[in-house]
Amino acid sequence: MKKLKIILLIFIGLISNINKSNADNIVDSLKQIVANSTELEQIVALNNLSDYYLDISLSEARKYAYQSIILSQKLNVKTEEAFSNKMLGYSYYYESNYDSSIFYFNKALMLYENEEYKKGMSDIYTALGNIHNKKGEIVQALELFNKSLTIDEELNNYLDKAITYNSIGQIYVNISDYSTALEYFEKSIEIFKKEKYDDGLANVYANIGNVYYDWEKYEEALVYIDFALEIFLKKDNKYKIAGLLSNKGMVYESMNEYNKSYECLNEALEINTEIDNKFGILNCEGNIAILKEKEKKYKEALNLYNQTLEIALEIDYEEGIISTYNSIGHLELLLKNYSSAKINIHKSLDLSSQNGMLNEMMISYENLAEIYNSTKEYEESIEYYQSYINIKDSIFKQQSLRQITEFNTKYELEKKENEIIILSTQNELQILNLKKQKNLNLFVVIISLLLIVIGLLIYLRFLNQRKNNKILENKNDQLVILNNTKDKFFSIIAHDLRNPLSAFKTITEALSENIKIIKQEDLEIYLNKLRSSSDSLYNLLQNLLQWASSQTNRLTSTPVILDLKHIVDKTITYLIANASEKNIILNNKIPENTNIFTDKKMIETIIRNLISNSIKFSKKNSEIKIYHKETPSYTNISIEDEGIGINETDLQKLFKIEIDTSTIGKSNEKGTGLGLILCKELVEKNNGKIFATSELGKGSIFTIQLPSNTDKK
Q1: 634 close to 706: Cβ distance less than 8 angstroms
Q2: What angle (nearest 5°) sits at the alpha carbon of residue 544, between those of residues 671 and 648?
Q3: At how many degrees (to 10) do helices 118-134 and 98-114 cross?
Q4: Three-class SS of 251-276
Q5: Which H or E element spans position 561?
Q6: pTM for the complete prediction?
Q7: Residue 445 in 3-state DSSP?
Q8: Is the model's pLDDT at 1 over the cut of 50?
Q9: How far apart are CA 187 and CA 165, in angstroms?
Q10: Percent of the chain having pLDDT more than 90?
């Protein structure tokens, strides 16, 4: 079941002029202004009401913003019209409706630009930056934040600058670079302390608490949440107090301290009920329901979810409605109320499909597969399970692409750090040379008195200097190799990604433009090409992620006893379509009950890459053989093809990422060598070896040598 996320107290604009602690009186005053004052005063009051209701009811916030826009356009008050659009942008941002949010923020930005109102422009740049950050578009987000910072510097808007630092910190939170995130939060704190802006300070403390929560450093998270609570308690800001207590409750839940979690959540619920904060009530009841479900108190959890559903429907909170229907359906499944479970899950699925919410769709399909399996409607269960797998694959591909983006970002940061290290090394060398010169001058002055001693000192100094120079040279060589390896690595990504993506673009354009006239046989050809491109892209991403994991020591081998013939047969089923295109026979000559002792996923990846390479470089109408040889010490697994072959010089270039392998061979189907590099990494993690033998024009044999079962044990 999907767990409700802890509330993240990120602010994207300065706190409203409305004092939340005197909310009732101020709201009444603003409504009196709307009813009895001039139209210009009404516009300002409506915008303040919209700002106030952002914390309570997004539908109310939008209602007042739309009323303000109508009056602003009537009186041609552009800055107030821009403010109203900004409020609309925030309201959709809080619902994660980023397309609508960007639309209204851009309208506000255009109005502010026309009025040359730079303070407003800065606010919008920060808001848009937050959206791009949420969407994983880090480069665009940083560009927008830098625009905002430039304006803030020009206007000496230190508070806005602190808010932008806070937003930049969130970028590093999203790529799990928590140390850098904390550095930006500290910059924000420094400004807020200097400006004595307690509301901003408390919000950053809350954000730091959330960083430590994500970092799974729960004790530190509680410390910073308490810092924020202390400030908001003094101000009697009940909205923030309730939100922080809810956060604190979920930290205790992660620490499995359920009694403390209930205490915090119930206190937050009481405050939210007192101030009629619908969002807060929904959040608290939902989090309490999570605890009840963990304790297997399913009926109590179900009652709470039904209450949260009523609130979500009342305030038209679509994301909450979808998530709660899924949660209710899941609990009904656990209680074996299958009919009710189906109804609720289908409601969630219909809404999430309309809104393109893949995670909720995946949860719905998984629940439906389990429900129909429980009711022995196996065909429907299989159908929904297949839909679940398809959605899961789509989410995985999105996550993989995002991981590549994050990896690239971290690479750029590391590259800059390496440049700094090189400069530092050069400075150290200059300092050493200066010291050497001073020492030589000193030696000249006293050489007549201490000739033997000075000679000895010079000799020792020379040895020491040579040692230092060798150390510095080694460091420089290591840095050069590191940068060359990274450059080569990303050139591999660019090469292999470009071909399948270009194929996707070309084929989809052709399909789109000719869909009404295209013939069935042509359509099948296009779809096969799309499938081939997607297979290439998926295999590259799989290889890339596994290689990256191995480089960061996050890939560990878990050896088990495996049936080698079964592994090879399974791999052949995935690749037989590719082989058929060239009429190549894949001949598995490994006998039944041939066991090996190695990591299952790693050996599957290795064999898949080697057979795929053999298909790529084999001639048409040829055969690829897979066979093995066992000795008391090791097991050899060989893949032999009848392809173009490799000369002796090129054989030495294989399995090395720093060497360009795209020119090896005379086949039109070039490769970058990433698959072979990954194979080498994975084989070595299983204490094995990989090597190749080949003869031009006669084919190649790639062999994996693994230790025997007894050796591994």
Answers
A1: yes
A2: 35
A3: 160
A4: HHHHCCCHHHHHHHHHHHHHHHHHCC
A5: strand 559-563
A6: 0.47
A7: helix
A8: no
A9: 7
A10: 29
